[in-house]
């Protein structure tokens, strides 16, 4: 619980508090998941820069000098640690914990994370000033976690230190002695000749130590002239570097605070900007969504005659277009929704009845949303097979276009395909890939989502069909996407992820999947190249995301898989028996 609280505090520290508007630097008038991700990356970097500058300034205050001098006294001098003592420290390590220079077993992954971290560091903070004690983002977040309470400061932290030695491997003994002084336990030591000019050796040390002592160790090592540089990489559940993400469906309640409120009040180009009645209606429905908590029944919305009229207009259009232009999976689910009297033109479906329908067919469920979430929070919800859906309706004066998703877009565009098992699995895998991903990777995943789930095309008996929700709920762009006025490209996640997004006009390029299964296979291979240093899986029995970062967890998973394989083998055996 302590680790979760600290991680959430770190998340709050870098939370986005600006509204998604042109005035605050949002790149366009029309809201989209792709532009959200880009805007969030920019704002988070700006916020981090401000927080880091404040923390570094505080670290340079005279009040910290005594602490650093005190910590520095714990580092033995060169005269105190003779060469034979250093060799003795190395020899006392278990054989598998010392890796020869030539093998470079773990440096590559660590350096990749380091380079990613440094690339995200704001310009102007690259070189510390003369009196700057070298606080990095990792250390600031670690200090933030330690400051929660005395218990948090005394909590054990697993970490990896990368130290660059200027004076040769003989300096390693001083580092090990300092770790011992601060009551740390060394788990792994690895060294190699450095590739950097002016540096003799690079050393990777994995250790366990209390947070308070780890901060003092880092500050102490930084004062020594024997080391060119030193970097901290956190390595346990309280990863001070990786973004916080929900582990259980109930923790999606913590993602609610980053929603954008009441778009019509912010954007003068919104169709409802001058309509006070509409704006008040949006506000009422938004407040209902903000009050929702995990486990609550989805609130009933009593839609007005005007809102039902808007629904009827769009519903009839989609009903006419779907048989010719929608993919088979969409058509089948649409018909099933009609058969169960959920899709009727005389009323808007309620989210609760739609959620019950999805849960029965694919295990997906719905959660009310006040508007667009941040890209990271929206994608995270998909990992739990939960779709965050709005309940408000677009303005009556613009029935065939809305500047942001509304309930008509969600119901007619997204819900039918979320009832298809293969598409539901593809959506969940996008969500799982987003958990713990970097800001840059969230941008790429959002772009993949945009060109597939929102505006994707697929092949069906040699013809191009639509499966993207944005196409199936937009008459004009649907006809454009299947015409010869645009370019069709085969879906390849690596190229799709970096395709520029057209906001003001129809897309010039659409990506065509051979099938949902083919799209999933390509997506899985692409996700395996992402920089996230761990793998996750969703446990449907507990509604919990499990981080597969230990042998015990892998053994449990293998046991579960063996049980499933046993059932499968028995089923095949029984099917082969003569009647």
UniProtKB/TrEMBL annotation:
Localization: Cell projection, Axon; Cytoplasm, Perinuclear region
All residue ranges annotated as the Biopterin-dependent aromatic amino acid hydroxylase family profile domain in the record: 230-576
GO terms of biological process kind: adult chitin-containing cuticle pigmentation; adult locomotory behavior; dopamine biosynthetic process from tyrosine; male courtship behavior; regulation of adult chitin-containing cuticle pigmentation; regulation of epithelial cell migration, open tracheal system; response to hydrogen peroxide; response to wounding
Record-listed Fe cation binding positions: 409, 414, 454
Cofactors (names): Fe(2+)
Keywords: Catecholamine biosynthesis, Cell projection, Cytoplasm, Iron, Metal-binding, Monooxygenase, Neurotransmitter biosynthesis, Oxidoreductase
Start-end of Low complexity biased regions: 112-128
Assigned EC number: 1.14.16.2
SUPFAM superfamilies the record matches: ACT-like, Aromatic aminoacid monoxygenases, catalytic and oligomerization domains
EC top class, as a word: oxidoreductase
Annotated GO CC locations: axon; perikaryon; perinuclear region of cytoplasm
Stored Gene3D superfamilies: Aromatic amino acid hydroxylase (1.10.800.10)
Family under the similarity heading: Belongs to the biopterin-dependent aromatic amino acid hydroxylase family.
Name this protein carries in UniProt: Tyrosine 3-monooxygenase
């Amino acid at each position: 619980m302590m680790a979760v609280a600290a991680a959430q505090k770190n998340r709050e520290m870098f939370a986005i508090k600006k509204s998604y508007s042109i005035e605050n630097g949002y790149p366009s008038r029309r809201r989209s998941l792709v532009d959200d991700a880009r805007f969030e990356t920019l704002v988070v970097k700006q916020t981090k820069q401000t927080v880091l500058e404040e923390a570094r300034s505080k670290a340079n205050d005279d009040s910290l000098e005594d602490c650093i001098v005190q910590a520095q006294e714990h580092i033995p001098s060169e005269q105190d640690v003779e060469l034979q003592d250093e060799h003795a420290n190395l020899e006392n390590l278990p054989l598998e914990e010392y890796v020869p220079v030539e093998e470079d077993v773990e440096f590559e992954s660590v350096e990749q994370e380091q380079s990613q971290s440094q690339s995200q560091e704001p310009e102007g903070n690259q070189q510390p000033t003369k009196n700057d004690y070298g606080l990095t983002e990792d250390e600031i977040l670690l200090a933030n976690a330690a400051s929660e309470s005395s218990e948090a400061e005394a909590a054990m932290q697993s970490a990896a230190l990368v130290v660059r030695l200027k004076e040769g491997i003989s300096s390693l003994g001083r580092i090990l002695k300092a770790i011992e002084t601060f009551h740390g336990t060394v788990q792994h030591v690895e060294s190699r000749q450095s590739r950097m000019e002016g540096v003799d050796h690079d050393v990777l040390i994995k250790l366990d130590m209390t947070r308070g002592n780890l901060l003092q160790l880092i500050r102490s090592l930084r004062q020594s002239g024997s080391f060119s540089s030193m970097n901290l990489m956190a390595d346990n559940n309280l990863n001070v570097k990786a973004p916080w993400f929900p582990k259980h469906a109930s923790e999606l309640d913590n993602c609610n605070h980053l929603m954008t409120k009441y778009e019509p009040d912010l954007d003068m180009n919104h169709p409802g900007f001058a309509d006070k009645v509409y704006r008040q209606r949006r506000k009422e429905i938004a407040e209902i969504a903000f009050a929702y908590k995990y486990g609550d029944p989805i609130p009933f919305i009593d839609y007005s005659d005007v809102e039902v009229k808007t629904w009827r207009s769009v519903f009839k259009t989609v009903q006419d277009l779907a048989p010719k232009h929608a993919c088979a999976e969409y058509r089948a689910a649409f018909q099933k929704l009609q058969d169960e009297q959920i899709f009727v033109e005389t009323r808007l479906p309620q989210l609760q009845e739609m959620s019950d329908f999805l849960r029965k067919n694919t295990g997906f469920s719905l959660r009310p949303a006040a508007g667009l979430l941040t890209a990271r929070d929206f994608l995270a919800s998909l990992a739990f097979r939960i779709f965050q859906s709005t309940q408000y309706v677009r303005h009556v004066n613009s029935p065939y276009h809305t500047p942001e998703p509304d309930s008509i877009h969600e119901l007619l565009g997204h819900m039918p395909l979320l009832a298809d098992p293969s598409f539901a699995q593809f959506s969940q895998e996008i969500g799982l890939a987003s958990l713990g991903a970097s800001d840059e990777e969230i941008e790429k995943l959002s772009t993949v989502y945009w060109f597939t789930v929102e505006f994707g095309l697929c092949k069906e008996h040699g013809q191009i069909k639509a499966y993207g929700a944005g196409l199936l709920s937009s008459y004009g762009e649907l006809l454009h996407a299947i015409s010869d006025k645009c370019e069709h490209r085969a879906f390849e996640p690596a190229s799709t992820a970096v395709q520029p997004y057209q906001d003001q006009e129809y897309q010039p390029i659409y990506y065509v999947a051979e099938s949902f299964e083919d799209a999933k296979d390509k997506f899985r291979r692409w996700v395996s190249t992402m920089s996230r240093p761990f793998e996750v899986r969703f446990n449907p029995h507990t509604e919990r995301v499990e981080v597969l970062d230990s042998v015990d967890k892998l053994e449990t998973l293998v046991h579960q898989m063996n049980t499933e394989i046993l059932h499968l083998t028995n089923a095949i055996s029984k099917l082969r028996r003569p009647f």
